[in-house]
Amino acid sequence: MYAQMVETGSKGVRDLESMSDQERAFQERVDADIKIEAKNWMPEAYRKTLIRQISQHAHSEIVGMLPEGNWVTRAPSLKRKLQLMAKIQDEAGHGLYLYSAMETLGADRDEEVQKMHEGKAKYSSIFNYPTLNWADMGTIGWLVDGAAIVNQVPLQRTSYGPYARAMIRVCKEESFHQRQGYEILLHMMTHGNEAQKAMVQDSINRFWWPVLMMFGPSDANSPNSAQSMAWKIKRHSNDELRQRFIDQTIPQLQILGCTVPDPDLKYNEETGHWEFGDIEWSEFYEVLKGNGPCNKERVAQRKKAIDEGAWVREAAVAYAKKKQQRNAA
Amino acid sequence: MADWTLFEVFVRSKHGLNHKHVGSVHAADAEMAIENARELYTRRSEGVSIWVVPSTAITATASDEKEALFDPADDKVYRHASFYELPDEVGHM
Which of A2, A298, B51, B66 is deepest in the core (most CB within 10 A)? Predict the structure, then answer.
Protein backbone atom coordinates (compact mmCIF):
# COMPACT_ATOMS: atom_id res chain seq x y z
CA MET A 1 0.00 0.00 0.00
CA TYR A 2 1.34 3.42 -0.88
CA ALA A 3 -0.19 4.97 2.23
CA GLN A 4 0.72 3.11 5.40
CA MET A 5 -0.50 3.68 8.94
CA VAL A 6 -2.28 6.97 8.26
CA GLU A 7 -3.13 8.61 11.57
CA THR A 8 -6.82 9.59 11.85
CA GLY A 9 -6.64 11.23 15.26
CA SER A 10 -9.70 9.22 16.23
CA LYS A 11 -10.10 7.12 19.34
CA GLY A 12 -12.97 5.11 17.96
CA VAL A 13 -15.75 5.44 15.46
CA ARG A 14 -18.70 7.42 16.83
CA ASP A 15 -22.26 6.41 16.19
CA LEU A 16 -24.68 8.67 14.35
CA GLU A 17 -26.57 9.67 17.54
CA SER A 18 -23.53 11.21 19.18
CA MET A 19 -22.73 13.38 16.16
CA SER A 20 -23.70 16.99 15.52
CA ASP A 21 -26.29 17.58 12.77
CA GLN A 22 -23.57 18.59 10.36
CA GLU A 23 -21.42 15.56 11.13
CA ARG A 24 -24.39 13.23 10.83
CA ALA A 25 -25.40 14.69 7.46
CA PHE A 26 -21.81 14.18 6.31
CA GLN A 27 -21.63 10.57 7.53
CA GLU A 28 -25.00 9.72 5.97
CA ARG A 29 -23.76 11.10 2.68
CA VAL A 30 -20.65 8.91 2.90
CA ASP A 31 -22.77 5.89 3.88
CA ALA A 32 -24.98 6.47 0.85
CA ASP A 33 -21.88 6.47 -1.40
CA ILE A 34 -22.41 10.09 -2.43
CA LYS A 35 -19.00 11.61 -3.15
CA ILE A 36 -17.70 14.42 -0.97
CA GLU A 37 -16.43 17.33 -3.06
CA ALA A 38 -13.96 20.08 -2.13
CA LYS A 39 -16.62 22.68 -1.37
CA ASN A 40 -18.78 20.42 0.84
CA TRP A 41 -18.60 20.67 4.60
CA MET A 42 -16.43 17.93 6.12
CA PRO A 43 -15.20 17.16 9.64
CA GLU A 44 -11.76 18.64 10.28
CA ALA A 45 -10.37 15.19 11.17
CA TYR A 46 -11.54 13.83 7.79
CA ARG A 47 -9.82 16.69 5.99
CA LYS A 48 -6.58 16.28 7.95
CA THR A 49 -6.51 12.50 7.56
CA LEU A 50 -7.09 12.79 3.84
CA ILE A 51 -4.32 15.37 3.48
CA ARG A 52 -2.01 12.96 5.33
CA GLN A 53 -3.08 9.98 3.24
CA ILE A 54 -3.05 11.69 -0.17
CA SER A 55 0.25 13.48 0.48
CA GLN A 56 1.85 10.23 1.62
CA HIS A 57 0.53 8.58 -1.50
CA ALA A 58 1.88 11.43 -3.68
CA HIS A 59 5.29 11.42 -1.97
CA SER A 60 5.48 7.66 -2.62
CA GLU A 61 4.94 8.18 -6.34
CA ILE A 62 7.65 10.85 -6.44
CA VAL A 63 10.22 9.01 -4.31
CA GLY A 64 9.33 5.85 -6.24
CA MET A 65 11.00 7.34 -9.31
CA LEU A 66 14.41 7.20 -7.64
CA PRO A 67 15.04 3.42 -7.42
CA GLU A 68 14.05 3.13 -11.08
CA GLY A 69 15.97 6.20 -12.20
CA ASN A 70 19.03 4.28 -11.02
CA TRP A 71 18.71 1.99 -14.06
CA VAL A 72 17.83 4.40 -16.90
CA THR A 73 21.44 4.76 -18.06
CA ARG A 74 22.06 1.06 -17.55
CA ALA A 75 19.01 -0.41 -19.27
CA PRO A 76 20.05 -3.38 -21.45
CA SER A 77 18.56 -2.00 -24.69
CA LEU A 78 17.06 1.16 -26.15
CA LYS A 79 13.60 -0.47 -26.05
CA ARG A 80 13.89 -1.18 -22.32
CA LYS A 81 15.24 2.30 -21.70
CA LEU A 82 12.27 3.94 -23.45
CA GLN A 83 9.81 1.76 -21.52
CA LEU A 84 11.50 2.53 -18.22
CA MET A 85 11.49 6.26 -18.90
CA ALA A 86 7.79 6.13 -19.84
CA LYS A 87 7.03 4.34 -16.58
CA ILE A 88 9.04 6.81 -14.52
CA GLN A 89 7.28 9.72 -16.21
CA ASP A 90 3.96 8.10 -15.30
CA GLU A 91 5.03 7.99 -11.65
CA ALA A 92 5.75 11.73 -11.78
CA GLY A 93 2.30 12.18 -13.29
CA HIS A 94 0.66 10.11 -10.56
CA GLY A 95 2.40 12.22 -7.94
CA LEU A 96 1.06 15.37 -9.60
CA TYR A 97 -2.55 14.10 -9.90
CA LEU A 98 -2.41 13.30 -6.21
CA TYR A 99 -0.83 16.59 -5.13
CA SER A 100 -3.61 18.35 -7.07
CA ALA A 101 -6.26 16.29 -5.27
CA MET A 102 -4.57 17.15 -1.97
CA GLU A 103 -4.56 20.87 -2.79
CA THR A 104 -8.35 20.86 -3.19
CA LEU A 105 -8.44 20.21 0.58
CA GLY A 106 -6.63 23.49 1.20
CA ALA A 107 -3.18 21.97 1.72
CA ASP A 108 -0.12 23.74 0.33
CA ARG A 109 2.08 21.58 -1.89
CA ASP A 110 5.38 23.20 -0.90
CA GLU A 111 4.57 22.79 2.79
CA GLU A 112 3.63 19.14 2.43
CA VAL A 113 6.79 18.38 0.44
CA GLN A 114 8.79 20.18 3.11
CA LYS A 115 7.23 17.89 5.75
CA MET A 116 8.48 14.86 3.86
CA HIS A 117 11.96 16.33 3.68
CA GLU A 118 11.91 16.93 7.43
CA GLY A 119 10.83 13.35 8.07
CA LYS A 120 7.42 14.48 9.38
CA ALA A 121 5.52 12.93 6.47
CA LYS A 122 6.07 9.40 5.27
CA TYR A 123 6.20 7.70 1.91
CA SER A 124 5.85 3.96 1.26
CA SER A 125 8.44 1.83 3.04
CA ILE A 126 9.13 -0.12 -0.18
CA PHE A 127 11.11 2.71 -1.78
CA ASN A 128 13.76 2.53 0.92
CA TYR A 129 15.18 -0.64 -0.57
CA PRO A 130 18.00 -0.49 -3.16
CA THR A 131 17.76 -1.63 -6.79
CA LEU A 132 20.84 -3.83 -7.19
CA ASN A 133 20.36 -5.55 -10.54
CA TRP A 134 18.38 -5.09 -13.76
CA ALA A 135 15.82 -7.72 -12.74
CA ASP A 136 14.78 -5.31 -9.95
CA MET A 137 13.15 -3.15 -12.67
CA GLY A 138 11.01 -6.15 -13.56
CA THR A 139 10.28 -7.04 -9.95
CA ILE A 140 9.27 -3.49 -9.07
CA GLY A 141 6.85 -3.30 -12.00
CA TRP A 142 5.38 -6.72 -11.33
CA LEU A 143 5.29 -6.88 -7.52
CA VAL A 144 5.48 -3.28 -6.27
CA ASP A 145 3.11 -1.87 -8.87
CA GLY A 146 1.05 -5.05 -8.55
CA ALA A 147 0.64 -4.45 -4.82
CA ALA A 148 -0.15 -0.80 -5.51
CA ILE A 149 -2.89 -1.83 -7.95
CA VAL A 150 -4.52 -4.11 -5.36
CA ASN A 151 -4.57 -1.16 -2.99
CA GLN A 152 -5.61 1.47 -5.51
CA VAL A 153 -8.41 -0.29 -7.35
CA PRO A 154 -10.78 -0.03 -4.35
CA LEU A 155 -9.67 3.58 -3.80
CA GLN A 156 -11.34 4.47 -7.10
CA ARG A 157 -14.53 4.28 -5.02
CA THR A 158 -13.17 6.31 -2.10
CA SER A 159 -15.52 8.90 -0.60
CA TYR A 160 -13.53 11.99 -1.60
CA GLY A 161 -14.30 12.86 -5.24
CA PRO A 162 -10.96 14.41 -6.32
CA TYR A 163 -9.02 11.48 -4.76
CA ALA A 164 -11.27 8.88 -6.40
CA ARG A 165 -10.91 10.56 -9.79
CA ALA A 166 -7.11 10.72 -9.45
CA MET A 167 -7.13 6.99 -8.62
CA ILE A 168 -9.10 6.17 -11.76
CA ARG A 169 -6.42 7.82 -13.92
CA VAL A 170 -3.62 6.17 -11.93
CA CYS A 171 -5.12 2.68 -12.17
CA LYS A 172 -5.46 2.92 -15.94
CA GLU A 173 -1.71 3.53 -16.21
CA GLU A 174 -0.53 1.08 -13.56
CA SER A 175 -1.54 -1.94 -15.57
CA PHE A 176 1.08 -0.99 -18.20
CA HIS A 177 3.65 -0.83 -15.38
CA GLN A 178 2.84 -4.25 -14.08
CA ARG A 179 2.81 -5.92 -17.49
CA GLN A 180 6.11 -4.34 -18.57
CA GLY A 181 7.70 -5.48 -15.30
CA TYR A 182 6.47 -9.02 -15.61
CA GLU A 183 7.58 -9.17 -19.24
CA ILE A 184 11.13 -8.12 -18.23
CA LEU A 185 11.29 -11.05 -15.81
CA LEU A 186 9.62 -13.52 -18.16
CA HIS A 187 12.08 -12.59 -20.91
CA MET A 188 15.03 -13.12 -18.59
CA MET A 189 13.65 -16.48 -17.46
CA THR A 190 12.89 -17.77 -20.97
CA HIS A 191 15.77 -16.25 -22.95
CA GLY A 192 18.38 -15.57 -20.28
CA ASN A 193 21.49 -17.49 -19.33
CA GLU A 194 21.93 -19.06 -15.90
CA ALA A 195 23.38 -15.89 -14.40
CA GLN A 196 20.43 -13.83 -15.67
CA LYS A 197 17.90 -16.32 -14.32
CA ALA A 198 19.68 -16.24 -10.98
CA MET A 199 19.35 -12.45 -11.05
CA VAL A 200 15.56 -12.76 -11.30
CA GLN A 201 15.36 -15.15 -8.36
CA ASP A 202 17.71 -12.97 -6.30
CA SER A 203 15.55 -9.94 -7.01
CA ILE A 204 12.33 -11.71 -6.00
CA ASN A 205 14.05 -12.99 -2.84
CA ARG A 206 14.99 -9.45 -1.78
CA PHE A 207 11.66 -7.81 -2.63
CA TRP A 208 9.10 -10.43 -1.57
CA TRP A 209 8.81 -9.62 2.14
CA PRO A 210 9.15 -5.83 1.79
CA VAL A 211 6.35 -5.96 -0.84
CA LEU A 212 4.05 -7.82 1.57
CA MET A 213 4.81 -5.11 4.14
CA MET A 214 3.49 -2.46 1.74
CA PHE A 215 -0.06 -3.31 2.84
CA GLY A 216 0.73 -2.15 6.37
CA PRO A 217 0.52 -3.89 9.75
CA SER A 218 -1.90 -6.73 10.32
CA ASP A 219 -5.44 -5.71 11.22
CA ALA A 220 -4.90 -6.33 14.93
CA ASN A 221 -2.20 -3.62 14.92
CA SER A 222 -3.98 -1.16 12.70
CA PRO A 223 -5.69 1.26 15.11
CA ASN A 224 -6.72 3.80 12.48
CA SER A 225 -8.44 1.41 10.12
CA ALA A 226 -11.92 1.51 11.67
CA GLN A 227 -12.27 5.29 11.31
CA SER A 228 -10.76 5.28 7.81
CA MET A 229 -13.20 2.56 6.77
CA ALA A 230 -16.16 4.45 8.25
CA TRP A 231 -15.12 7.45 6.17
CA LYS A 232 -14.58 5.19 3.15
CA ILE A 233 -11.09 6.51 2.55
CA LYS A 234 -10.01 2.93 3.04
CA ARG A 235 -12.26 0.20 1.65
CA HIS A 236 -10.65 -3.08 2.70
CA SER A 237 -8.45 -4.13 5.61
CA ASN A 238 -4.68 -4.51 5.28
CA ASP A 239 -4.78 -8.28 5.73
CA GLU A 240 -7.59 -8.68 3.23
CA LEU A 241 -5.67 -6.77 0.54
CA ARG A 242 -2.43 -8.61 1.33
CA GLN A 243 -4.18 -11.97 0.92
CA ARG A 244 -5.78 -10.86 -2.34
CA PHE A 245 -2.34 -9.85 -3.63
CA ILE A 246 -0.70 -13.14 -2.67
CA ASP A 247 -3.51 -15.19 -4.19
CA GLN A 248 -3.22 -13.45 -7.53
CA THR A 249 0.59 -13.35 -7.54
CA ILE A 250 1.60 -16.94 -6.78
CA PRO A 251 0.20 -18.39 -10.05
CA GLN A 252 2.18 -15.71 -11.93
CA LEU A 253 5.28 -16.68 -9.93
CA GLN A 254 4.81 -20.29 -11.00
CA ILE A 255 4.63 -19.33 -14.66
CA LEU A 256 7.96 -17.55 -14.23
CA GLY A 257 9.39 -20.72 -12.73
CA CYS A 258 10.59 -18.89 -9.62
CA THR A 259 9.99 -19.20 -5.88
CA VAL A 260 9.47 -16.86 -2.94
CA PRO A 261 11.63 -17.07 0.19
CA ASP A 262 8.85 -18.41 2.41
CA PRO A 263 9.08 -22.08 3.53
CA ASP A 264 5.57 -21.83 5.02
CA LEU A 265 3.84 -20.88 1.78
CA LYS A 266 1.18 -23.43 0.88
CA TYR A 267 -2.15 -23.62 -0.86
CA ASN A 268 -5.18 -24.37 1.26
CA GLU A 269 -7.62 -26.38 -0.85
CA GLU A 270 -10.50 -25.72 1.51
CA THR A 271 -10.27 -21.94 1.67
CA GLY A 272 -8.84 -21.49 -1.82
CA HIS A 273 -6.20 -19.15 -0.41
CA TRP A 274 -2.43 -19.27 -0.16
CA GLU A 275 -1.18 -19.40 3.43
CA PHE A 276 2.10 -17.68 4.19
CA GLY A 277 4.67 -17.36 6.97
CA ASP A 278 5.05 -14.63 9.59
CA ILE A 279 6.11 -11.19 8.45
CA GLU A 280 9.09 -9.66 10.25
CA TRP A 281 7.29 -6.53 11.44
CA SER A 282 10.27 -5.14 13.34
CA GLU A 283 11.92 -4.54 9.95
CA PHE A 284 8.84 -2.63 8.75
CA TYR A 285 8.79 -0.35 11.80
CA GLU A 286 12.54 0.30 11.50
CA VAL A 287 12.14 1.34 7.86
CA LEU A 288 9.22 3.62 8.78
CA LYS A 289 11.35 5.21 11.49
CA GLY A 290 13.90 6.14 8.84
CA ASN A 291 16.35 3.29 9.36
CA GLY A 292 15.86 1.35 6.12
CA PRO A 293 18.77 0.74 3.75
CA CYS A 294 18.07 3.84 1.61
CA ASN A 295 15.93 6.28 3.66
CA LYS A 296 18.64 8.91 4.02
CA GLU A 297 19.74 8.67 0.42
CA ARG A 298 16.16 9.01 -0.91
CA VAL A 299 15.29 12.09 1.13
CA ALA A 300 18.68 13.68 0.37
CA GLN A 301 18.12 13.11 -3.35
CA ARG A 302 14.66 14.69 -3.25
CA LYS A 303 15.95 17.74 -1.36
CA LYS A 304 18.79 18.12 -3.82
CA ALA A 305 16.35 17.99 -6.74
CA ILE A 306 14.21 20.74 -5.21
CA ASP A 307 17.20 22.92 -4.24
CA GLU A 308 19.08 22.55 -7.48
CA GLY A 309 15.91 23.11 -9.51
CA ALA A 310 15.20 26.44 -7.80
CA TRP A 311 16.87 28.47 -10.54
CA VAL A 312 14.70 26.80 -13.19
CA ARG A 313 11.51 27.74 -11.37
CA GLU A 314 12.78 31.29 -10.84
CA ALA A 315 13.82 31.61 -14.48
CA ALA A 316 10.36 30.42 -15.59
CA VAL A 317 8.70 33.16 -13.54
CA ALA A 318 11.16 35.81 -14.81
CA TYR A 319 10.56 34.70 -18.39
CA ALA A 320 6.79 34.76 -17.95
CA LYS A 321 6.98 38.33 -16.56
CA LYS A 322 9.22 39.47 -19.40
CA LYS A 323 6.83 38.04 -21.98
CA GLN A 324 3.89 39.71 -20.29
CA GLN A 325 5.64 43.11 -20.31
CA ARG A 326 6.63 42.72 -23.94
CA ASN A 327 3.05 41.85 -24.88
CA ALA A 328 1.72 44.85 -22.94
CA ALA A 329 4.14 47.26 -24.64
CA MET B 1 6.22 27.05 -6.73
CA ALA B 2 4.36 29.41 -4.40
CA ASP B 3 4.49 32.22 -6.99
CA TRP B 4 3.22 30.01 -9.80
CA THR B 5 -0.42 30.14 -10.81
CA LEU B 6 -2.82 27.22 -10.46
CA PHE B 7 -4.59 26.50 -13.76
CA GLU B 8 -7.58 24.22 -14.33
CA VAL B 9 -7.16 21.98 -17.36
CA PHE B 10 -9.87 21.04 -19.87
CA VAL B 11 -9.25 18.48 -22.60
CA ARG B 12 -11.23 17.75 -25.76
CA SER B 13 -10.80 14.02 -26.18
CA LYS B 14 -11.99 13.79 -29.80
CA HIS B 15 -13.11 16.15 -32.54
CA GLY B 16 -16.78 16.89 -32.07
CA LEU B 17 -16.83 16.41 -28.30
CA ASN B 18 -16.74 19.21 -25.75
CA HIS B 19 -13.79 20.06 -23.51
CA LYS B 20 -13.96 18.32 -20.16
CA HIS B 21 -12.27 19.22 -16.88
CA VAL B 22 -9.46 16.75 -16.16
CA GLY B 23 -7.46 18.32 -13.34
CA SER B 24 -5.06 21.16 -12.66
CA VAL B 25 -1.43 22.19 -13.09
CA HIS B 26 0.86 24.84 -11.64
CA ALA B 27 2.74 27.02 -14.11
CA ALA B 28 4.51 30.37 -14.43
CA ASP B 29 2.10 31.42 -17.20
CA ALA B 30 -0.62 30.08 -19.47
CA GLU B 31 1.76 28.94 -22.20
CA MET B 32 3.73 26.86 -19.71
CA ALA B 33 0.46 25.56 -18.26
CA ILE B 34 -0.45 24.19 -21.71
CA GLU B 35 2.95 22.50 -21.97
CA ASN B 36 2.64 20.99 -18.49
CA ALA B 37 -0.94 19.88 -19.13
CA ARG B 38 0.14 18.19 -22.35
CA GLU B 39 2.76 16.17 -20.44
CA LEU B 40 0.47 15.40 -17.54
CA TYR B 41 -2.91 14.69 -19.09
CA THR B 42 -2.37 13.61 -22.72
CA ARG B 43 0.56 11.16 -22.66
CA ARG B 44 -1.55 8.45 -24.26
CA SER B 45 -3.49 10.32 -26.97
CA GLU B 46 -6.22 11.36 -24.55
CA GLY B 47 -6.84 14.65 -26.34
CA VAL B 48 -6.84 16.78 -29.46
CA SER B 49 -7.17 20.18 -27.77
CA ILE B 50 -6.40 21.68 -24.36
CA TRP B 51 -7.78 24.74 -22.53
CA VAL B 52 -6.17 26.14 -19.41
CA VAL B 53 -7.92 28.68 -17.16
CA PRO B 54 -6.49 30.29 -14.01
CA SER B 55 -8.38 28.65 -11.12
CA THR B 56 -9.14 32.07 -9.64
CA ALA B 57 -11.07 33.00 -12.82
CA ILE B 58 -13.68 30.32 -12.17
CA THR B 59 -16.85 31.24 -10.32
CA ALA B 60 -18.69 28.22 -8.98
CA THR B 61 -22.01 27.59 -7.29
CA ALA B 62 -21.73 27.13 -3.53
CA SER B 63 -22.69 23.76 -2.08
CA ASP B 64 -25.29 25.32 0.25
CA GLU B 65 -27.05 26.80 -2.77
CA LYS B 66 -27.66 23.38 -4.27
CA GLU B 67 -31.33 23.10 -3.29
CA ALA B 68 -32.19 26.67 -4.17
CA LEU B 69 -30.61 26.40 -7.58
CA PHE B 70 -31.33 22.91 -8.71
CA ASP B 71 -34.39 21.61 -6.86
CA PRO B 72 -36.89 23.75 -8.79
CA ALA B 73 -36.09 21.63 -11.87
CA ASP B 74 -37.13 18.45 -10.08
CA ASP B 75 -40.89 19.14 -10.15
CA LYS B 76 -41.03 20.22 -13.78
CA VAL B 77 -41.48 16.81 -15.31
CA TYR B 78 -43.40 18.39 -18.20
CA ARG B 79 -40.03 19.60 -19.53
CA HIS B 80 -39.15 16.04 -20.49
CA ALA B 81 -40.29 14.28 -23.65
CA SER B 82 -41.23 11.18 -21.67
CA PHE B 83 -43.96 13.17 -19.84
CA TYR B 84 -46.19 13.19 -22.90
CA GLU B 85 -48.14 10.00 -23.51
CA LEU B 86 -49.02 9.36 -27.13
CA PRO B 87 -50.86 6.41 -28.66
CA ASP B 88 -48.65 3.61 -29.99
CA GLU B 89 -49.81 4.10 -33.57
CA VAL B 90 -48.03 7.47 -33.64
CA GLY B 91 -44.80 5.49 -33.62
CA HIS B 92 -41.43 6.95 -32.72
CA MET B 93 -41.51 10.70 -32.12
Answer: A2
Helical segments of A9-77, H only: 21-31, 44-63, 65-69
Given phi > 0 = left and psi -120 to 50 = alpha, else beta, which region is A217? beta
* Angle of helix A310-328 versus helix A295-308 axis, rounded to 10: 20
Which residues of chain B make contact with A41, given a CB cutoff of 8 A?
Answer: 63
Give the pLDDT mean for A85-114: 95
Number of domains making up chain B: 1
| 3-class secondary-structure state, position A273 | strand
Residue B86 in domain:
no
What ipTM, to 2 d.p.? 0.83
User: Does the pLDDT at position A248 exceed 60?
Assistant: yes
Give the residue numbers spanning the domain of B48: 5-81
Q: Which residues of B touch A168 (CB under 8 A)?
A: none
Residue A61 pLDDT > 70: yes
pTM of the model: 0.91
Q: Please give, rounded to a whole number of angstroms, the shortest distance from the CA of B16 to a CA of chain A.
A: 23
Q: Is the pLDDT of residue B11 over 60?
A: yes
B36 to chain A: closest CA residue? A93
Q: DSSP 3-state assignment of A280?
A: coil
Q: Judge whether B89 lies within some domain.
A: no
Window B:2-61, CB contacts with A under 8 Å: 2-4, 6, 23-29, 31-32, 39-40, 43-44, 60
Residue B90 is assigned to a structural domain of this protein:
no
3-state SS class at A91: helix
Q: How far is A316 from chain B (nearest CA, A)?
A: 6
Distance from CA of B90 to the nearest CA of A (A): 40
Predicted confidence (pLDDT) per residue in A106-141, tens digit: 999 999 999 999 999 999 999 999 999 999 999 999
In-domain check, residue B88: no
